[in-house]
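Anyone? Bumping this.
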Amino acid sequence: MMSFMFAIIRRDLLLVMRYPAEMLNPLMFFVLVVALFPLGISPEASLLSQVAAGIVWVAALLATLLALDILFKADFADGSLEQLLMAHQPTWILVLAKVIVHWLISGLPLVLLSPLVASMLFLPAEALPTLMFSLLVGTPTLSLFGAVGAALVTGVKNAGMLISLLVLPLYIPVLIFGTGAVAAAAQGLPVSGYLAYMAAMLIFALMITPWAAAMALKVGQMQG
Amino acid sequence: MQLTTPPILLQVAQLACERDERCLFSGLQFSVRAGEIWHVKGPNGSGKTSLLRQLAGLLPVDKGDISFPAEKSLLYIGHKLALKEQLTANENLAWLTALSTPSTDQQRYSALAKVGLRGFEESLVAQLSAGQKRRVALARLHLQTAPLWLLDEPLTAMDQEGIKDQQGWFSEHLKKGGAMVFTSHQDLTIDGVKVIDLSTLEEARV
């Protein structure tokens, strides 16, 4: 079971290394969106620091969404998905492996890039650990919920917009608690409540989404 | 001398297939025993691929029944070859076999040599020709141990030599107690090929 999961993760990371543009696009998007805000609103530190948390989180959310489309699409197109579904292994493991790869190439780099973009927006230094931690807990949740949307639209052409519509409502609580935590940290208020809610959402997503996405994948494959 | 009948690996009873509200075939009935080779024939759009996908469990079975009296262990090579263009032949076989029977570099190299791809082990699949790609996929026949092979158009894009080689692999597999169901527009020269003709089935129903 574990070797099945590692085989998929290894293969997908190898593919990303061979073809890094797929991974770099969402990250470029993330940095560019954040970089444009000071130009569009005002370079004033006092104003930017107030909206910094929201901008970083919205950009992270959209960058995650951008990387979702490719989650199962290539595997469906070249027939790999058939072989993966036929392996005598529970499909939720396949989903989990795909989510882990998605997070490694989209969520984790966002966490690592966040100090850079936070400084571009004059986020108070004391709020930075909270921003990074909220992204660390929040982005896996985004990847997990996103997998359900991506699984539902496998085999549908040009489904990028459809995924967004399906998944965005599920992303909103993560966004609210993520920005809430960072805003509270900037004002010196306790943040553990926010982060606890985010951790709870992650655990909830871990419990139901691999199963739900597995069901969606099977139905999608049967129609394809 | 009394010969025991070989075990049934796959049993199909009253199977029907409907795609987009069109009935492709119905009342299909056959059983595949160890050592048997079945050729699914029929014109384009008669449901050959759909039948194979149903057998592989990749399409729903609304009517009829498909059962595997022995252990359900299949090797399915579909129309889509499940090869990643940005990976080498060797890497592709590595992940494909890891799903059921993990293989070593040595095993994969010898399997690729058997399908005539010596020297192409570390070439990206994107750089291979259509026939070579199919050969990479068919190298799985030499690596995986599943007794029942389901092959969709295995002869497509193969040269004469390749078709001859394949028939050799098929016969070898049958001798070892394996069985296979395949689709093709081309007849094999192996003895004892059993035929499922989906076009006559259609007429019988009408």
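Late reply, but here is one note on the structure posted above: The interface with chain A takes residues 56-60, 74, 76, 78-87, 91, 95-96, 98-100, 102 of chain B (CB under 8 Å).
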